[in-house]
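ingest -> validate -> predict -> emit
validate: passed (alphabet ok, no gaps, 130 aa)
predict: started
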Amino acid sequence: MDDLKKIRVPTGALRVEIDDPDQSRIRKPVGIIRGWFATSDIEVPAGFEFKVGGITLPHSVTKRSDVETAMPDYNILGFNIPYDLFTFLPYITDNRLLVNLILPEYDSLRLRFTIADSALAICVASASDA
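emit:
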């Protein structure tokens, strides 16, 4: 949490952080991506989306008390994105998955994830069983 206290978000800017999976490395075939937005003087735009290829990912908005405590001068909004790598197999290249964050009035942002070999192997095995 001490690292969070050092973060500064300039006026008019929006910061996006992914804190789970650690270092954006997906190690399980099914799980939840957790992250948050921080702003100093604006609201996080409503209607943001996460997409992989043409698939819009379901997500939920959540309170992030841990980040709010570390960054009390900022507007914080957390999010959770449940995932199943099996769904994304056609979009995984070289053990990498790109998730596009679409925010109204902002350029889209690519969130890059590395997929562990073990997680990918489980998905490929599941695909061959199907």
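The helical segments are 2-5, 65-70, 85-88, 117-129.
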